[in-house]
């Protein structure tokens, strides 16, 4: 309260010293200048008429001096009436010029009438020279600012100031951004220089724009060219180089935007509109995943693809990338209609030729999920539908089992029974030695797809029981044991990755909201660490895994070193232009139920196998008694649907690595 009072007192003090608004101060200065211009113009007119001041007759000088105060007051009043003191002259155009001409004519008439009627006649050249000089001086000062800005290339035709831009990266992506800025009528920016670490490009030009040096020249160039905005167009740069450049840019006080990554560059999505604000995820210490787009294209092209949970953050990105690879049909299945509707609108606009079906339903509904598979017969399933929020699932453990484990089982069974060729489960690093029910439920999902895969490879798919949560007629049950199940060839695979930046419920959007609200930023523990990846990376991994799959694998991304959440929060505060613990406080709230300090990518006994992609590995399946496991699932389902409090103990007996915190 005391601080607020001091700020108010300081504000009042400032208003007492400077009582005028900025525009009012400019108006007073313009009036003073106009008074000088009027006086000087007509005095110069007398000088021109008589060649020198000493030669001006005394009666003419007397009439000029006596009329001058009236002339100035009247002219300024006329100028006010023509709104010459209310215009923003940086945006001056024909309208302002027209009003200045009219105001000059009005003051000319006023001057002739006033001096002749009340003080005596003056030479005709006095009026002609005087009004011409007055017009030049009055219009000159008002349009000079605009003309200078236009000359320097800082002003667009409509009077808007161009933003001064630097592009880092003089390669193909940088040239595309440069051309986009130059040729667009919608982008009010102008590029003044470029930066590139290739010395062969220094002191040369691209389309008239100088390449002034490497990253060591960024500070100097920003100051020399008064740069306001920096575009980083380095899609193929290593993480270390990119992070170093972004850290330099952060210190310049310029707005910094960056091309999201190699995927956008490879798919031709490079433009000024595709540039995004630099966030803390750009500073993570790991190379981006580089996927073989040709392999994915050949794998997806001409196939019918089903994405469950297709409206979620991961599911919707899966739908986008699948749509980019020309499937025969894309089916989006989600229980939340708003998200499904959003991605439907987006894809129909971007891919009008796409055969798209959007269906609302739950993976927990046996009849519905069977109906989807029997109607569309998808070749590939990306199973992203799941409850993922750790604290909420701790409060509702039965829902985690119903939706994640039982929902996966029913979807997997429907896929197997209807001839689906590949089923890709979206898993999480929280399934490794889980301490919370969400992680345990995802480990159950992994065990389910491993059990299905093992049974299929043994030729015993018909032994897999079908789970029902409602009464079924005999004829409906029969379809579970048909030729498709007996001869099932579906390949089941899981993809496991860490926290996804920007996804629903992730920590970065929460931190942003807290920073926008002025803090505090809440971190559960100063030592808590997590592995991170971006949504496009996660989806690229999922799609690449679908190409590599032979059945039963758990694919794992090499996510480099884990990141401290505390460091993440403090970097985000800095990127927002604030100082941690000074402008915005960081508060520690303590670990939440089911949360652990360290996430693990693999259980120690799983080991790793390599794939063709150096950043994607395969975890060898941990053996477990499949017969016992399949027998336990019916009891697990029954316990979950009856919402019994013993659900954790039962899950612990099934998932032996689950140790509730």
Task: Offer a quick outline of the entry.
The protein is built from 23 helices and 22 strands.
Which key terms come to mind for this protein?
nine-stranded mixed β-sheet; 3 domains; single chain; alpha/beta; 661 residues; disordered N terminus; 23 helices; elongated; 48% helix; seven-stranded mixed β-sheet
Question: How would you characterize this protein structure?
Answer:
The protein is α/β, with parallel strands linked by helices. The protein folds into three domains: about 20-150, no CATH class; about 165-280, 3-Layer(aba) Sandwich (Rossmann fold); about 295-500 and about 530-560 and about 600-655, NAD(P)-binding Rossmann-like Domain (Rossmann fold, 3-Layer(aba) Sandwich). Helix content is about 50%, strand content about 15%. The strands form five sheets. The protein has a nine-stranded mixed beta sheet, sandwiched between helices. Helix 11 crosses helix 20 and helix 15 crosses helix 22. It is elongated.
Strand content: 5-15%
Low-confidence stretches: 1-18, 261-271, 473-477
Overall radius of gyration: 36 Å
Measure the end-to-end span.
Answer: 42 Å
Subunit arrangement of the protein = single chain
- Portion in helices: 40-55%
Instruction: Give the integer mean of the pLDDT values.
Output: 80
Shape: elongated
Number of β-strand runs: 22
Q: Quickly give the structural class.
A: alpha/beta
CATH fold-level assignment of the largest domain:
Rossmann fold
Domain unit count: 3
Number of distinct helices: 23
CATH class of the largest domain: Alpha Beta
Considering the protein shown, what is the CATH homologous superfamily of the largest domain? NAD(P)-binding Rossmann-like Domain
Strand order of the largest sheet: 10-9-8-11-12-13-18-22-21
Largest sheet: 9 strands, mixed
What CATH architecture label of the largest domain applies? 3-Layer(aba) Sandwich
């Amino acid at each position: 309260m005391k601080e607020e009072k001091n700020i108010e007192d300081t504000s009042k003090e400032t208003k007492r010293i400077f009582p005028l608004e900025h525009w009012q101060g400019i108006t007073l200065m313009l009036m003073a200048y106009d008074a000088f211009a009027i006086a000087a113009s007509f005095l110069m007119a007398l000088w021109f008429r008589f060649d020198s001041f000493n030669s001006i007759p005394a009666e003419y000088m007397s009439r000029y001096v006596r009329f001058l105060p009236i002339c100035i007051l009247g002219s300024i009043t006329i100028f006010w009436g023509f709104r010459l003191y209310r215009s923003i002259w940086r945006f001056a155009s024909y309208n302002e010029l027209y009003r200045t001409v009219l105001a000059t004519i009005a003051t000319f008439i006023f001057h002739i009438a006033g001096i002749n009627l009340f003080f005596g006649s003056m030479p005709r050249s006095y009026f002609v020279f005087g009004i011409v000089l007055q017009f030049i001086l009055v219009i000159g000062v008002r349009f000079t600012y605009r003309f200078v800005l236009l000359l320097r290339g800082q002003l667009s035709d409509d009077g808007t100031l161009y933003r001064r831009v630097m592009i880092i990266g003089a390669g193909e992506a940088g040239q595309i951004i440069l051309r986009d800025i130059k040729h667009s009528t919608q982008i009010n920016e102008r590029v003044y220089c470029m930066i590139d670490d290739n010395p062969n490009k220094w002191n040369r030009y691209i389309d008239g724009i100088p390449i002034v040096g490497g990253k060591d020249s960024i500070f100097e160039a920003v100051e020399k060219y008064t740069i306001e905005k920096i575009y980083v167009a380095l899609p193929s740069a290593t993480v270390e180089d990119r992070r170093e450049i972004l850290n330099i840019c952060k210190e310049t006080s310029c707005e910094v935007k960056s091309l999201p990554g190699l995927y956008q560059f490879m798919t031709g999505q490079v433009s000024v509109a595709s540039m995004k604000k630099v966030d803390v995820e750009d500073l993570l210490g790991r190379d981006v995943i580089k996927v073989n787009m040709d392999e994915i294209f050949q794998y997806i092209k001409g196939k019918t693809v089903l994405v469950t949970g297709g409206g979620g953050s991961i599911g919707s990105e899966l739908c986008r990338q699948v749509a980019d690879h020309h499937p025969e049909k894309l089916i989006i299945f989600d229980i939340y209609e708003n998200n499904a509707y959003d991605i439907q609108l987006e894809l129909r606009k971007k891919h009008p030729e796409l055969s798209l079906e959007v269906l609302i339903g739950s993976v927990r509904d046996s009849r519905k999920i069977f109906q989807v598979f029997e109607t569309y017969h998808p070749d590939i399933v990306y199973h992203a539908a799941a409850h993922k929020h750790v604290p909420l699932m701790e409060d509702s453990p039965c829902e985690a089992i119903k939706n994640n484990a039982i929902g996966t089982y029913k979807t997997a069974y429907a896929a197997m029974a209807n001839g689906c060729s590949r089923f890709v489960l979206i898993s999480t690093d929280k399934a490794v030695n889980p301490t919370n029910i969400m992680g345990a439920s995802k480990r159950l999902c992994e065990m389910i797809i491993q059990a299905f895969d093992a049974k299929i490879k043994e030729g015993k798919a018909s032994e897999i029981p079908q789970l029902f949560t409602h009464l079924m007629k005999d004829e409906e049950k029969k379809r579970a044991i048909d030729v498709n199940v007996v001869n099932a060839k579906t390949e089941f695979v899981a993809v496991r990755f860490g926290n996804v930046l920007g996804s629903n419920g992730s920590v970065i959007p929460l931190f942003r909201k807290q920073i926008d609200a002025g803090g505090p930023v809440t971190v559960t523990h100063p030592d808590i660490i997590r592995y991170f990846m971006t949504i496009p990376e996660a989806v690229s991994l999922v799609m690449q895994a679908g190409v590599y799959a032979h059945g039963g694998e758990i694919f794992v991304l090499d996510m480099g070193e884990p990141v401290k959440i505390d460091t993440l929060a403090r970097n985000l505060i800095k990127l927002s232009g604030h100082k941690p613990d000074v402008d915005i406080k960081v508060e520690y709230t303590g670990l939440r139920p089911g949360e652990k300090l360290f996430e693990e990518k693999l259980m120690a006994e799983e080991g790793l196998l390599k794939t063709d992609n150096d950043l994607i590995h395969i975890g060898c399946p941990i053996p477990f008694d499949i017969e016992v496991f399949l027998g336990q699932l019916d009891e697990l389902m029954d316990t979950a649907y009856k919402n019994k409090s013993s659900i954790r103990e039962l899950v612990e007996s099934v998932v032996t690595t689950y140790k509730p915190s």
